[in-house]
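Hi P.,

Sorry for the delay on this. The queue was packed all week, but I finally got your sequence through. Input first:
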Amino acid sequence: MITILGGGPGGYTAAIRAAQLGAEVTLIEREEVGGTCLNWGCVPSKVFLKGSKMYSQLKFAESYGVFAKPSPFDMKRLGERKDEAKQALVMGLKNVLRSYGVNIVHGEGRMVDEHTVARPGGNIDCEKIILATGCQPEVPHLFQELSVTYKEVFQLQYLPRSVLVVHGGVFAVEMAWFFLELGSQVTMVAGNLLEKDFEDIETRIASYLKNRGVKFVQGRIASIKKQGEQKLVEIGEEEIIAEELIWMNRKPVLEGIPQRLVKNGRVAVNEYMQTAIPTVYAVGDITGSYTAGDAMAQGVVAAEHAAGNAVAYDYKTVPKVLYAPEAAVIGLTEREASERYDVVKGNFPYGASGRAQTVGALRGRVTVLADRKYGEILGAHIVGKGASELIQLIGFAMRLEATIDELSSLLCAHPTMVEMIRDAGLDIHGNAFNLPRK
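Then the structure:
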């Protein structure tokens, strides 16, 4: 018997895998199955980004001989489309869970001890527990009334003329990009623009945002005052006026988890996702990783290990993706790789790709890192159209322990974007087919 607290990507993936392995599974979720990702994060934001991209591409379409005048953007209809996608996915997920016999319990769950979970209606005795309680918005109490969080922003019924996005990270940048494409004036205040996994491309993303008109402000918010229909935000010596203040910060949900498992604001785990109590596992946001891909990979590992299989979590082969402006990373950063290996690097610019030229995706670059001696693929970063899909091929090669030369032997249809992966690998030896001789 395995009991899982939390039905987000980490929790529901663990539930499905554990059930596939023959375990009796109970999944307890206090809000909605799918967690932040399906309901207030990944899925809603991607629907919103699709809407803003379609709107902004009407201008770009003129270069292809298509002339169309955009009508006023309908935030209400976009919200309805978001709800349609979300409801379809949540319903489908529930059907999958039920098909495997997972017992779904709606309500608050709490870990009592290493073999007991409290839930509505009484306690559950179980052999193993998987904690997947996710995250929640974190807004200073003084600023709550004048701010909207990442949950509430998807409920807006109008398009604000100006927004202030507070706190960095992938979701914050995507939210800034959404409003930017629709013509809103966008200001961001963040210590770090992106998570540390993106350090190789953070400067490039920041420059791209600035060139598109995003204003960056450094410092702490001292006060927020209402000024008519707008907010007056004091940050250091500056005053920013915005119609909406969007607070993107999140924190792990640690309520109902024994404090002895919490260290430095998160639940510490080993490579098998076990906590300090061997029968208790933790996955997802509460471990300090805020991506759905990480949570799902961790959920599989926790379920496998709980079932007796010695499967370990390999964080290096899980891609991290920024959907707008599109970018992706995997493996070690250049700094991390250089500290441990004799690194060789290959690059390929989007502008040299035939397919990128035909679709007008001229800005971007593919970079791959490898060990000089053995050719081990150490990592990669991609900025540009299709990055979120292209990175998967590199991840698959890393999972198979392919060398950079094996990746570079990839046979490709032409013209395709995936040719850039091959040519970036070939560039390590100066043999890229679509770059001048070095």
